[in-house]
Every structure is written in C-alpha cells, then in structure tokens.
Amino acid sequence: MNDTLQVTSGSAGVFNKIRDSIVNGRYSYNERLPSERDLATRYKAARGTIRSALEQLEQASMVRRKFGSGTFVTYKNDFDHEDIAEETSPLELIEARLAIEPYIVKLVVLNANNRDLNRLEQALEQANNTDHDPEAFSQADEAFHLMLATCSQNPLLIWIYQRINDIRSHNQWSARKANILTPLKIRAYNEQHRQLLEAIRHRDQIEASDIISSHLKQARQDITGVG
Q1: Sequence spans of domains, the chain
Q2: How far apart, in whole angstroms, are the C-alpha atoms of residue 36 and residue 204?
Q3: Which residue, among 84, 85, 95, 102, has the nearest Cα to 226 in the 3D structure?
Q4: 13: closest CA among 160, 104, 130?
Q5: Inter-CA distances, 150 with 36, 73, 101, 153, Å
Q6: What is the pTM of this model?
Q7: What is the CATH T-level fold of the domain 81-224, as seen in this structure?
Q8: Cross-strand partners of 73
Q9: Which positions of the chain have pLDDT values less than 70?
Q10: CA-CA distance, 187 to 130, in Å (whole number)?
Q11: pLDDT tens, position by position, 44-93
C-alpha cells in the first residue's frame, strides 16, 4: 500500500480511515495490515492511538490480531454494497436503524463491561468539538453507533451494523451532510449521545431504548422531513 501521509485525529479517526480502506477493498480478507509503527507514520498518530484503533477494529470483528504475527483482516466484502446503497432511501435507512438499534442498546445495557463503557466514552469524545465540521462529526457518529453494536457482544448484530455503516458512508449521503448537520444540530445530537451513555451506565434499559428511539426519530425528521 502506498498511502500518502495524513494527519488523523484520535483513535476514532484512525479507526474510520482503516475501516474505510478495508471496506473499499484496499486491504482484502486475510491480508496483514501494516505494522503499528508504519500505521503511526502513515496517520501521524501515536502508537497508543494506533493500538486503540486496532482494538476497536477487532471489537468490531473487522480484524484479528495474532500475537507475534500481526493484524489480519477478517471482514469479507462479499456483497455489492454499492448497489444496495444506491437503492436505499434515507427513510429506508432510518427505518432499518429504528428496527435494530433500540434492541442493540438493550443488549449493551445487559452485556457491556467497564472497558466497553470506556470505549463508548472515547468514541463520544471524538464527536465533541466537531460543531463546525459535518464530515468529522459524521465519521465520529458512525464510529459511536458501531461501537454501540460492538458492545452488544452479538456478532451477527455487529455484522449487520457494519453493513448499515457501509451505506451511511456512501457518496450519495455526502451532499446531505452540509445542509443537515448544522452546528446547532450537531450539538443536539451529541447531547443525545451523552444522555444515552449515562442511561447505559445506570443500566436503565427502558431509558436507554427510549433515548435511542427518540434520537433516530429526530434524525428521520431531519433527513426526510417525516416525523
């Protein structure tokens, strides 16, 4: 891989960059990723940041780390996500998320350990201070919701949510971001994320499920004008 050097902010940023490279096929199934040192140079990030991003990718079932051998891609891109993304409307995407994310959140309340909660906190922190950068917020938002799925500890739900993020990151959505993700809206979404994390920390399934449902219904209204 002959990637150009690029500055990437935080482990969530590195997570998104490597994830995109995997999803786009630049790193193929069972291919060994560059070493932590090479990745640190490529993304101009600390080794600890790279290590944290790789841990998140492993938790998301996209890579497998073998002691003494390296990190290998476990993600199989064996469906035509371009066609699916083209055919999926904003309303259909939100409907799919409303169908599964409230239950994902219930599983997170049941299954997440302290380490998982700290990872959710880190993912949320990446979304802070992105008020005036819709693209940065969008990437951090995708990482936060994928981390929610990862903390459910259900491999199939994690896989399904990876497919959802494939569609969310498709080019057809880029034009919508600048119009929808205003500074005020980004702050509101981040506050909802914070409330969700607090409900999860208090192991309140009903509250957490209600918050994520309200969050997605608001997103549906913002994207489609459908309340």
Answers
A1: 10-73, 81-224
A2: 38
A3: 95
A4: 130
A5: 22, 17, 12, 6
A6: 0.70
A7: Four Helix Bundle (Hemerythrin (Met), subunit A) (1.20.120)
A8: 63
A9: 1-9, 77-83, 170-176, 178, 225-227
A10: 9
A11: 999 999 999 999 898 888 899 988 889 999 887 665 555 677 778 888 88
